[in-house]
């Protein structure tokens, strides 16, 4: 079998016509398939069924705190203990807040804007320029938080071991660079595990900004798909040992452990940071939903039981990831028109189409009823300079739908590549 | 019986000595009694027991939306319907968000600071001065939100019919006056029902600021203590009819209907406002906790059932309010040293001690183990110019404890008054 670049124009035309036939057949079916977002599938949601009945109204007092009433802004002590165990931090470094780590991240940035962080000379809204480092491809919602506050987004290339640290170390010499977005384990979308060296270099950064915020989104900290749990080092300890105790804010949530949007989110940070943030948070909230915290503590219990639950999630996710990877191996690999990741965990397959074809491929997908994350979304300002990266989210659709969606996706990627090569 | 001002010095000294004896006896008991916050009592919390078991994992899809998964930023349609019915607004004017209306208010002010509101010429953080009207006595947490963002707090006197509207109408001529805090029904702490005329004048305000924000905290909209539900007019309609459709943001929550801090909060505002706010909210959140929304919809059902539930709350609250009022009638009224409200709903009795004695009275209370909301808290910057207003929150303690706490409170108020009159 020839690769696409080896085809003559006539062969490409023939190939295109055949693909177009298959494409039109699919289009006629009027399908509605969605691989846009990292939404758990229905089978995963059912794993947390017992949590919906786990509380009784007369059994909601723990450590002398009534989870049914106002109070305990930083969260139930038992919930802090659980997340401290999962993240390897101390309970006093944990804030258990709300349902979404995204909101905790946004709120931290909002407070940086209006009030400044612990060591800010002034609120960021009073700074002429605020820049933020965005390892890319990355998580679009991270970048959009910074963008929405008018920050300047600085692209940092992602490598196989995490952000390009030479570029990061250079960039943080600029005192207007106020922070960096990171997903250290199973990065979104590449599924990369930051290497030990990368993490050490990050912890040892010497940013010019005294209030540099390392936004450490450990969204997939226990989210293995293949194999056993891979331990990670506590970034708070590493930063503390490197003389940067207040630089890091770590985030996690149970959105992909229990119920998305109805889970529990946490922020881990130094005790001094927690104190400072709580001093601002006290104007925003009396307390977060402690009943939901208690539900989670009773259901998730401890790290061991969480990891066992995550293996059940993995069992459900594996056939979906395999369906994606099998389709790509079969339909795309021989043509040498794209590369992609084979993640061991997380929620995505990161696909790099032939340069200049991602937008076109996704437009074709959309026309045939397959919705994907928009091309470019994984880059600052939604602009992929190579128009190549596509994030595939296989978790939501049932396997049969997914196979169909991937068949259409592969057709579209091939058509776009042939168009680019010339017909 | 003589009033305190009729007593001779010798009589005052005798009275003081007798009170001091009772005070010391109480102090020796080492009590810990709390009337500081409007926290529902345990019996109230138990009314919502069925809600903790009301969801089944396979019965969480409503209107085609899976409440277990991400999505629907503005809330479940069925939840919007419920709150629209309660508030008398249209469902499309409702945002169902999070657990706490306080957080919704804070977030709106935060967004005003960082991005501006719908008709803001610029973000408020870029304004040299932002002033906010604070009808006082009022809710300390409202005032502290404004204060935390560096706004200048303008005291507006409260009257028996609501804020002094002459003062308000004059104040809003200043374009730096960007909004006003209101609790229109059973105001915190006075329990005042804003009169029809006051509400009409508020809806018809002509503020110089194009982005004036009427922060309409309808916290006690269905919270009668004595008597049947008292209907209220829809402030959104009134503002719309007065040509101010985008001036008002109405807030409510189920914190004092179901579980405090684990309830559901709403913001009602014009469709244009909702659209604008959602365009900013999309960076902050994927969706709020829809499982908790669904729990509430299934449990609360509709306005009729909510009002029936509120009558159950009232049955529990009435003996507590009576204990407070009875103590004051018996121990304080004959002495003519204070005035207080007899609220028909809400969560507070607003007590005005002899001028210049509130702080001293509460310091005495604290020493004897009775914790109250700090004196001055009901005024901007925590400073009551008359050092008189004290907010009594009778809901949390069991009736027997409350009687004891009120006995101590009355002793302290009397001692402080005698000290002021001179011994």
Distance between the termini of chain A: 19 Å
The strand line-up of the biggest sheet of chain A is 4-11-10-9-8-5-6-7
Largest interface: A-B, 55 and 55 residues
By DSSP, the count of extended strands of chain A is 15
What is the oligomeric state here? homodimer
Helix content of chain A: 25-40%
Q: How many separate helices of chain A? A: 13
Order of helices and strands of chain A: HEHEEHEHEHEEHEHEHEEHHHEEHEEH
Radius of gyration of chain A: 23 Å
Strand content of chain A: 5-15%
Overall mean pLDDT of chain A stands at 97
> Uncertain regions of chain A: pLDDT < 50 for 5+ in a row?
none
What does this structure look like?
2 copies of one chain form a homodimer. In chain A, the strands form 4 sheets. An 8-stranded mixed β-sheet of chain A has the order 4-11-10-9-8-5-6-7, sandwiched between helices. In chain A, strands 12-13-15 form a 3-stranded antiparallel β-sheet, with helices on one face. The two termini of chain A are 19 Å apart. The first copy, chain A, has helices at residues 9-28, 42-46, 77-87, 101-114, 140-148, 165-171, 196-203, 235-241, 271-281, 290-300, 303-331, 358-367, 399-421, and strands at residues 33-35, 61-62, 65-66, 94-96, 131-136, 152-159, 162-163, 177-182, 213-217, 248-253, 265-268, 339-340, 349-352, 370-372, 389-392. Helices cover 39% and strands 14% of the residues of chain A. The mean pLDDT of chain A is 97. The first copy, chain A, is built from 13 helices and 15 strands. The radius of gyration of chain A is 23 Å and the shape is globular. In chain A, helix 12 crosses helix 13. Chain A has 423 residues and is an alpha/beta fold. In chain A, strand 5, helix 5 and strand 6 form a beta-alpha-beta unit. Chains A and B meet through helix 2, helix 4, helix 5 and helix 10 of A and helix 2, helix 4, helix 5 and helix 10 of B.
């Amino acid at each position: 079998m020839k690769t696409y670049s080896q085809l003559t124009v006539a062969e490409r035309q023939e190939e295109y016509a055949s693909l177009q036939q298959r494409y039109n057949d699919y289009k006629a079916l009027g399908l509605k398939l969605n691989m846009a977002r990292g939404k758990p599938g229905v089978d995963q949601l059912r794993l947390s069924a017992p949590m919906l009945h786990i509380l009784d109204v007369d059994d909601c007092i723990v450590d002398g705190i009534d989870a049914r009433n106002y109070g305990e802004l930083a969260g139930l002590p038992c919930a802090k203990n659980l997340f401290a165990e999962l993240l390897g931090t101390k309970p006093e470094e944990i804030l258990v807040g709300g349902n979404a780590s995204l909101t905790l991240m946004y709120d931290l940035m909002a407070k940086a804007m209006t009030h400044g962080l612990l060591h800010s000379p002034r609120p960021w809204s009073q700074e002429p320029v605020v820049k933020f480092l965005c390892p890319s491809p990355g998580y679009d919602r991270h970048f959009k938080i910074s963008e929405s506050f008018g920050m300047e987004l600085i692209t940092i290339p992602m490598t196989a071991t995490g952000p390009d640290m030479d570029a990061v170390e250079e960039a943080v010499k600029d005192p207007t660079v106020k922070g960096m977005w990171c997903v250290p384990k199973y990065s979104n979308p590449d599924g990369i595990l930051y290497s030990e060296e990368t993490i050490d270099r990050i912890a040892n950064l010497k940013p010019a900004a005294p209030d540099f915020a390392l936004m450490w989104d450990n969204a997939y900290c226990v989210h293995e798909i293949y194999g056993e749990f891979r331990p990670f080092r506590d970034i708070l300890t590493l930063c503390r040992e490197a003389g940067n105790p207040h630089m890091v804010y770590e985030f996690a949530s149970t959105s992909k452990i229990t119920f998305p949007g109805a889970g529990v989110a946490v922020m881990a940070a130094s005790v001094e940071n927690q104190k400072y943030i709580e001093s601002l948070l006290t104007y925003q909230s009396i307390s977060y939903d402690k009943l939901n915290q208690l539900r989670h503590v009773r259901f998730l219990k401890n790290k061991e039981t969480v990891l066992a639950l995550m293996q059940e999630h993995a069992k459900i996710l594996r056939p979906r990831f395999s369906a994606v990877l099998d389709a790509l191996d079969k339909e795309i690999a021989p043509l040498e028109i794209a590369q992609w990741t084979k993640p061991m965990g997380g929620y995505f397959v990161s696909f790099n189409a032939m340069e200049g074809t991602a937008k076109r491929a996704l437009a074709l997908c959309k026309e045939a009823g397959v919705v994907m994350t928009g091309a470019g979304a994984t880059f600052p300002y939604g602009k992929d300079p190579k128009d190549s990266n596509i994030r595939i989210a296989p978790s939501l659709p049932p396997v049969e739908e997914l196979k169909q969606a991937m068949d259409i996706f592969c057709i579209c990627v091939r058509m776009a590549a042939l168009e680019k090569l010339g017909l």
